[in-house]
Amino acid sequence: MRALKIIAATALAVVLSSxxxxxxxxxxxxxxxxxxxxxxxxxxxAGSLAQAVGAQKSPQPEHTGLSALVHATGSDFVTFPxxxxxxxxxGMGGAAALLVHPWDRExxxxxxxxxxxxxxxxxxxxxxxxxxxxxAAVGLYAIGRYAMKPDEGxxxxxxxxxxxxxxxxxxxxxxxTYGIKYAAQRDRPTGECxxxxxGHASVTFATASVIERHFGYRxxxxxxLIAGYVSASRLTDNRHYLSxxxxxxxxxxxxxxxxxxxxxxxxFTMYPVPVRGGVAIAGAVNP
Length: 287
Hints:
Layout: H1 2-18, H2 49-54, H3 66-79, H4 84-100, H5 104-111, H6 115-121, H7 123-127, H8 130-147, H9 158-184, H10 199-215, H11 217-236, H12 242-259, E1 268-275, E2 278-285
Antiparallel strand pairs: 1-2
């Protein structure tokens, strides 16, 4: 029974932190079946919502240089609280964190005896470091900017654009994460400060959210699975409680989607939905 309980608890951590997609990828779900789904569509640059939904991909930014990075990042911080989706995502993440909070300590105590799970999840500790995620973003940005030619008629290309967005997402996510950490002052399971929210969860989900809007859900699911894996590793490593990683994942998604609010594919959109006992990620396809 103890082993089953540990496995079930870890599965819950992964599901709540990475999201459980409630529809098959191939299933076409009309936007009318979930009216609030339109909150999570890309911000339409002009025209009606229908025109925005029908767009395949918005243009790349004209510039991705350092000056553009500074200005765009500043704009992201201004835009973050203005997006309705930000407050829906954070609200649902906060509600889910409150829901699982009573079992935080019990879950961590159980997981400390799961030696096999600890071994399996150990690499997540390293994948989720902020400097690893930031380093990957800087690497993509540098390769795109300095090792690859810009697309014809532009000053950028797909890879510098991706690195540009990932950098912005990491800067904003880490700023919010550490700001909340020092405001909340919640101790880690080991007694050190500061646990809430999980930085590993927030930065990896921010990366996954940017990738989803650049390449679509098929290409982004591996990164979402990695983000869930990283989040679960924080529990077996006894560095965070489940509520820390649940809210951290919501913060990362809200930050990432703020950055790519005018980028990416609109034929598929992801959005959180309340379900009995937690929160899930749903998908809507508009062919």
